[in-house]
Amino acid sequence: MKIKFLPSLFYAFLLMLLLVGCSASNETEAQNDKQSEVTSEQEKDNDQESNKENKESSKENDEESYDDSDLIEAVETSPVYPEITFQNINWFWGSPDRQPTGGIWVYTSETIPSGYESTVDWETKDLLLVQVNDPKYIDHSMDFKALQKIDDDIVKIVVSLKQDDTKTDKEVARRYASVDKGELEGKKFLVETVEGDKVDVGLNVKTSEISGSEAE
């Protein structure tokens, strides 16, 4: 009777050995995986620390590369002013008469001078005129380059003034431009060249005294 059960016990014993072996193998693999993850995390931390040290070292080297003379020569950004949109006006079929003196004028629909009725759309635009009575700008062409709001009530007119060899009538430089209606209302003005030179419009100088011709 006992002999009959021996094979069964033997097979049961073998099965237990297999189960124990598999369990041990799985546990070993789990430990290996865990150890691998720990090692990977450590390597990652080491890499991050190394990168951080390299960046700090590079930053220190950059800072050391600038001496005091470099820092003294460092400049701040130039001021940026809001600008007023405008359009230079050219006269192809005869231009209006020149003003008797230099100055700055802003014409509106309420103050349209004679002969200017069709110059701009007076419902949406105003007309700006700058006339420069400075002897060094006789027979010069003038273009507006910018209308800059440098204060609540002050506009800087930046102009380009260039000798015009086609002009020989000894006339003073001037320029008209259209601007959106009301943009220049109540404003005071400065005139400056693109090179940064102040321009005197010559309010107290008659055009005839500058050009040598009779004022119209």
UniProtKB/TrEMBL annotation:
UniProt entry keywords in alphabetical sequence: Signal
Q: What is this protein called?
A: Lipoprotein
What are the Acidic residues biased-composition ranges? 61-72
From the UniProt annotation, give the residues forming the signal peptide: 1-24
Region feature Disordered, mapped onto this chain: 26-72
Q: Where is the composition biased (Basic and acidic residues)?
A: 31-60
State whether keyword Signal applies: yes
